[in-house]
Structure formats: C-alpha cells, structure tokens
Hints:
alpha+beta; 6 strands
Amino acid sequence: MAVCEVCGNDYAMSFEVHSQGAVHTFDSFECAIHAMSPVCEHCGVKISGHGVEAHGRFFCCAHCAREAGVSAELVRDHA
C-alpha cells in the first residue's frame, strides 16, 4: 500500500505517475489531476483536457487565450 500525496489516503490500489524526472503517488485520477494539471492563466480553472498553449502560457480554451491577449490567429478551438 502507498499513501496518496494529495489526500493522504493509504490505499492498496494506489498508482505512480512518472513525470519530468519525479515520481508521484496517487490513490485516484481526481487527486492526480488536482496535483499535476496546469492552471488556466486567464480564469484559473485546472486544465485536465487538451487546453491551449501559446508562447509558453497555458489556457483552458481559445476564448481565455484571446481574453488574455493572445493573437486570435494563434489559437482556435477545435471542438
């Protein structure tokens, strides 16, 4: 059993995520998303989907990127 680094639950079915040279232990995808997802620079929501990256900045959608001043030509929603 291993302890989740987010909620502290000691769970038999915990799992590890290896990212950028670090190892993280979680008991659920919810905790993994909470800990590892980037945050939209405009609205502050956790980005658990594709999101938009522009000039090294992360946004949850093209609308937020445009609202933050990213040129409309650089971002589009594909939904």
